[in-house]
Amino acid sequence: MIVDCHTHLWKSPEEFSEGLRDELASVGYSDEIMDVSPERHAAATSGADCSIVFGLRAALSGFLTVNDTVAKYVRTDPEKLIGFAALDPTEPGVLEELERAVGQLGLRGIKLTPIYSGYHPWDERAWPIYERAEALELPILFHQGATFPRKAPLKFALPHQLEDIALRHPNLKIVVAHLGHPWEAETIVLIRKQPNVFSDISGLHGRPWQFYNSLRLAVEYGVVHKLLFGTDFPFFTFEDTVDGLHNIVEMSQKMGVPPLPTELPDEIIHRNTLKLLGLKG
Ligand SMILES: [Zn+2]
């Protein structure tokens, strides 16, 4: 079974601020790329047996996904799609929104973006979210790594900043998106020591040298079993991500550098992510 643990859906351009649209365009994310209709999402993710889907909610950066948008789409194919609620603890009413997203909308996990929203992961405003997530067995996928909007503070982006959460909530399932790029090594040592912290490999194949080093480090630290498959659609496609994994292994085996194992792509692509995250299976 192939699970894509990291895909996006939103209404474009309605759920982006004007300033964000300019910033997206400046880094090459055109309106065309960002326009994720349900039809486009379904077609692009057809290679996966199950896709986890969420928007982004970060008032500071101008990502304004309404969770109903995701929930409505998930209801079109509940066997294949699992929706996560995008939450911003800097916004009033975030706890009510969490309860509504789970109780009324049927969403089954949470997407948090400290750097985009402008809070430290250990900010007390986020604590009740972690408590409820652990109690309700909702995995949290953190964008804990760099990003492009100018106002998004890098000081809140470091992967090790999730460690206090993992210690206080040992049963909470946490996924660090994109191996915490460009702090992949920090993510690798974090997932090695925290049993319920995982990471996805989405969005990394476009920087092949860093991707190679990150995967090689994951092999050396013995944490490949904590790496989950994800695409970060619409920024990257399913096919590109699968090919990127195979290509990096092939490249490593030809270059005279410490090679990546031949079985590594299939191991990651066929990871039993739903079971690891307590979602089902
Ligand atoms: Zn993403």
Quickly list its features.
single chain; 281 residues; alpha/beta; two-stranded antiparallel ribbon; 13 helices; 39% helix; globular; binds zinc ion
How would you characterize this protein structure?
The protein has one domain: Alpha-Beta Barrel (TIM Barrel). The protein is 39% helix and 13% strand. The chain has 281 residues and is of the alpha/beta class. The chain has helices spanning 18-26, 31-34, 38-44, 67-74, 94-103, 114-117, 127-136, 163-168, 184-193, 208-221, 238-254, 264-269, 273-276; strands spanning 3-8, 50-54, 57-58, 63-64, 81-86, 109-112, 140-142, 174-176, 197-200, 227-228. The strands form 2 sheets. Strands 1-2-5-6-7-8-9-10 form an 8-stranded parallel β-sheet. It has a two-stranded antiparallel ribbon with strand order 3-4. The mean pLDDT is 97. Helix 8 links the parallel strand 7 (140-142) and strand 8. The chain binds zinc ion. Zinc ion is lined by residues 6, 8, 177, 232.
Write down the secondary-structure element order. Answer: EHHHEEEHEHEHHEHEHEHEHHH
Q: Please tell me the CATH architecture by its name.
A: Alpha-Beta Barrel
Uncertain segments are: none
**General form:** globular
Which cofactor or ligand species appear?
A: zinc ion
Residues in β-strands, percent: 5-15%
CATH level-four homologous superfamily name: Metal-dependent hydrolases
User: Measured on Cα atoms, how large is the radius of gyration?
Assistant: 17 Å
How many helical elements? 13
* Broad CATH class: Alpha Beta
What distance lies between the first and last C-alpha atoms, to the nearest angstrom? 10 Å
Average the pLDDT over all residues and give the rounded result. 97
Main beta sheet: 8 strands, parallel
